[in-house]
Specification:
The complex is a heterodimer of chains A (127) and B (213).
Chain A lengths: L20 H27 L8 H19 L10 H31 L3 H4 L5
Chain B lengths: L1 H11 L16 H30 L9 H4 L2 H26 L3 H31 L8 H34 L3 H34 L1
Helix pairs in contact in B: 2-6, 2-7, 4-5, 4-7, 5-6, 6-7
Classes of the chains: A mainly alpha (127), B mainly alpha (213).
């Protein structure tokens, strides 16, 4: 990789700053351990009755987002560095669309369900 | 004179990293390729978000059929998740080996990644076959349609990834660590890690959130 990454250029997504092999392996090990910990916590929380039950969905979503962050940083090597600006901006736009699609759909459909009168009041009964 | 020099510097150093390259020219091919593939991956994630949205809307429309908590087996999902996580790690090891041009560790990392991916696919296929055999196929209810399309779409991506992985091993075997092969390898690693990120969403939203309530 060292012969292809030129000084003054951006970093390709997935590429790291110049490190020796040991440091790079260590990065993956840290990412794997963190990801396994977060996964184990998710599965534990989903099945336990030790915590307040209504908090479980929120906790699961927070853990999932945290784990996605761990994957992005340690496996995909997305950083906040100046050589990563393009990658981060593309990611930010992707996330914007994802939140618009998922959030907008859930929001609109939940309200449609709530505002809809029962079916037999809309459709006239056949004679 | 100094004014134009300052303007020229600002253009040559857009990110203010202190390195001024007067005529940097187009970025190296490795960056262009990986960036284009990164944009494709993000559009793929946007497509998955539509399946997630459909699942979230339809999760309670069971039409008298089974609910998620009645058909999901937490133990299988945990095994699948560990397989994908470990395969992401071994895929990272393989890409490091490709960067330092070490054939042995490259083949080993890719082979382990392939086996873990196949174990994942086998467990998922068995789960699907079992559901269909019990009469809970995708046509049973809107919930099951959304479930099969979301999880199945991820499974199809993993299958394509395994084929790509074998292609990469064959290309390194036949052509060696050429620059174009290394670019493809980098795109494959991005693809495989992105699939893992989507799986995090799948097991959290579908299996854990849907299985609990």
């Amino acid at each position: 990789m060292s012969d292809q990454a030129h000084i003054g250029h951006d970093l390709a997504p997935g590429d790291e700053e110049q490190h020796d092999v040991g440091t790079r392996i260590l990065g993956y090990v840290v990412g794997l351990v963190l990801a396994l910990l977060l996964t184990a916590t998710s599965f534990f929380i989903a099945g336990t009755d030790l915590v307040w039950q209504p908090s479980i969905p929120v906790a699961l979503i927070v853990l999932a987002i945290a784990q996605m962050g761990v994957h992005l940083v340690f496996f995909l090597h997305i950083t906040t560095g100046p050589d990563n600006t393009n990658n981060v901006l593309a990611l930010a736009f992707g996330l914007l669309v994802v939140f618009l699609v998922v959030g907008g759909t859930v929001w609109i459909m939940a309200h449609l369900n709530a505002n809809m009168p029962p079916m037999d009041q809309i459709m006239p009964k056949p004679m | 004179m100094s004014m134009t020099a300052a303007v020229g510097d600002a253009h040559a150093d857009p990110h203010h990293i202190g390195l001024v390259v007067e005529h940097p020219g187009p970025a190296p091919k490795r960056i262009v390729t990986a960036y284009g593939f990164w944009v494709f991956l993000l559009s793929d994630i946007v497509m998955f978000s539509c399946f997630f949205a459909a699942y979230a809307v339809l999760v309670s429309q069971t039409a008298g059929g089974p609910k998620g908590s009645e058909i999901f087996e937490q133990r299988n999902v945990a095994i699948e998740t560990v397989c994908l996580l470990l395969s992401s790690f071994t895929c990272g090891m393989a890409s490091i080996a490709a960067d330092v041009r070490n054939r042995f560790w490259f083949y080993l990392g890719m082979a382990v990644t392939c086996v873990l991916g196949l174990i994942f696919l086998a467990i998922e296929f068995r789960e699907f076959a079992d559901l269909v055999a019990r009469g809970y196929g995708p046509s049973r209810s809107a919930f099951l349609t959304a479930f099969f399309s979301l999880v199945g779409c991820h499974g199809l991506h993993v299958s394509a990834g395994v084929l790509w992985l074998l292609t990469m091993m064959a290309q390194v075997f036949a052509k060696g660590f050429r620059a174009d092969v290394l670019r493809r390898m980098m795109c494959f690693a991005l693809f495989w890690h992105a699939l893992d990120i989507i799986w995090v969403g799948v097991f959290s939203v579908v299996y854990l959130l849907g299985g609990g309530s």
